[in-house]
Amino acid sequence: MERAVLEADGLCAGYGAIPVLRHMSFKVGAGEIVGVLGHNGMGKTTLMKALVGQVNVTAGSIHLSGKPAHSLPTHQRAALGMGYVPQGRDIFSSLTVRENLAIGAAAARRAVAPAIEGAVADFPVLSRLLDRKGGALSGGEQQILALARALCGAPRILLLDEPTEGIQPSIVDEIEDHLRRLAAERGLAVMVVEQDVGFIRSIAQRVLWLQKGEIIRELAPERLQEQETLDEFVGLENAAG
User: Is the overall model pTM greater than 0.85, yes or no?
Assistant: First the structure.
């Protein structure tokens, strides 16, 4: 793998005095899709928020394209090429699709009109939705908008938190196809956290298994087809419950 677009080394993070992430180390290279698998409460969302600067890092480091980023505010990490689609999508429901996309471009100091044109080229479904309010879109359309808005910032790495949650299977397949294409054609690095084993198996080239704020192992995606691995994953869910 070439120099990593994103590298975490000994990353620890949490909320106040409550530790959540413990000594996590990993890399994501250009054009690579890395999955993070884990059940609810295992630290997946905290990991995403720590990477983008919404949760304080208490130890370890984060590098973006070789530059230290763990002390930078969120907007400066975005300027270094980090895009983020949070769980729940977090679009501006009272603004139109066009205005949502414009905010994504402006936040990264990119020209708005070309960014919107690029978003529509990437996601043609948006062409008929540009003047519709974000809150009037279906869940799948909102997810596509959130993805397109993040891409308007021309990120080098895209972080996705539970992108399949509440989305119909046809839209999940469409998002999967888009992510594969963007990784292959543009060298976009992608890190996606999920608890949907099938989605992670289908899209990721490597899988990091997260348990109680630690990476307990790294798997090839085909391992997620093995009954023994699936049984262990279900067993951990039952133990956590």
Answer: yes
